[in-house]
Write a structure and sequence with these properties.
about 45% helix; 3-stranded antiparallel beta sheet; globular; alpha+beta
Length: about 375
């Protein structure tokens, strides 16, 4: 018995000795999955925690999930977790949902899946990933809104705001950033000439749309609204508590996108500087947003064990409202019935803890990105 066990042991010693002289090849780094976080968080809020998930390094399995979740239209449904391990029932449900029409750009959907699949194809050579990315790219190009080169929330529209030109959740700016990657990034080398022509046209029209829709006050460019009516091109509401207003968070994303343009036009530079000036002029001083423990409460869309309040604090970092008035720049707050509220205390706990009404979104843009952008263009600080 002892001699029968010795052979594997000696082989193991020999293999270890060999390994000491030849280090194993390094594992390929994971394809980043952070772009899916918004959809993942929404998925988790509606499902029990603790389900099995893939590791980011398992990019082939994640890409296979994306293939399964993609609709035949080329788009993807919103609020999925592509890292979850799909059992037989989940796979069967995904196959059925492939026949549903359209897809969504909400919560950073579809264009992020296309980008991921392009990288998965570049690494693996699996033509299924290439073909799915091309179908997704065709869907993106087909859904550009004719009136003014932006993109809708979701197709087909199932609410009164789904077909509006959408900046909320980085819909239009996120799509445009991805299309610029299609033009320049090596992982998109497989895109054919005809599609590249369509992409170039879409980017040109989308960039013009950004400049056209920037809200002006007294002739000066400011920020962008969360949504615009696709016919009148006027700022429009989203969900009932999202009134027509300047939106700070996503305007940061628009400015970052415009800053990424290598050789910006004078109109683009003016748009960027106008937004930066607005952020500087309309920061809220002396207020701190405090989150504190509170008795657990279950709401229709989330469970809260905290609450939030605004406190006076001269040492607090700068804050901005998520929404500011289109005319006077005051902070816009609302309830689920669509009533504008005057104070944060009037916002019910469900919306105080289930939505971000205040934040520091523009701070890094002002402190880091703007100086770097001006330095690149050789522009002096204002």
């Amino acid at each position: 018995m002892m001699r029968r066990r010795a052979l594997p042991l000696l082989l193991g010693v020999g293999m270890a000795a060999t390994a000491a002289h030849a280090a194993p090849p390094a594992a390929a780094p994971a394809i980043p999955v952070g772009s899916f976080n918004d959809g993942v968080n929404h998925w988790r809020s509606g499902h029990a925690d603790g389900y099995a998930r893939l590791q980011p390094q398992q990019y082939r399995q994640i890409a296979d999930n994306l293939l399964l979740l993609q609709r035949r239209s080329g788009g993807w449904p919103v609020n999925q977790d592509p890292l979850r391990v799909l059992d037989a029932a989940a796979r069967a449900a995904a196959l059925v949902s492939q026949d549903e029409p359209g897809g969504s750009f909400d919560n950073r959907t579809t264009y992020t899946q296309v980008d991921y699949l392009a990288e998965a194809f570049a690494r693996s050579g699996d033509t299924r990933y290439r073909d799915a990315a091309l179908r997704g790219l065709d869907f993106i190009l087909d859904q550009q809104i004719e009136r003014c080169g932006g993109w809708p929330h979701s197709v087909p529209a199932r609410t009164d705001y789904h077909d509006r030109i959408t900046f909320a959740d980085d819909v239009t700016s996120g799509v445009l950033a991805t299309l610029r990657q299609v033009e320049d990034a090596p992982r998109f080398a497989f895109v054919d000439a005809a599609r590249r022509t369509r992409v170039a046209t879409a980017v040109q029209r989308g960039d013009a749309c950004l400049l056209r829709l920037q809200v002006r006050q007294h002739g000066q460019p400011t920020l962008w609204a969360g949504q615009y009516d696709a016919t009148t091109l006027q700022p429009a509401p989203g969900r009932k508590f999202e009134l027509a207003a300047l939106v700070t968070d996503e305007s940061v994303g628009v400015v970052r996108y415009l800053m990424s343009i290598p050789d910006p036009s004078p109109q683009t530079v003016q748009a960027i500087e106008g937004a930066l000036a607005w952020f500087q002029a309309n920061a809220l001083h002396g207020l701190r947003l405090q989150t504190f423990d509170a008795p657990a409460e279950q709401f229709a869309h989330h469970r809260s064990t905290v609450d939030r309040r605004l406190l006076a604090d001269p040492a607090a970092p700068l804050l901005w409202g998520r929404f500011h008035d289109l005319a006077d720049n005051s902070v816009v707050l609302a309830n689920r019935q669509g009533d504008r509220l005057q104070t944060y205390e009037q916002v019910g706990r469900e919306r105080r803890t289930g939505y971000h009404w205040y934040g520091t979104w523009p701070q890094a843009l002002l402190d880091r990105d703007a100086p770097a952008w001006r330095a690149r263009l050789g522009r002096p600080a204002p």
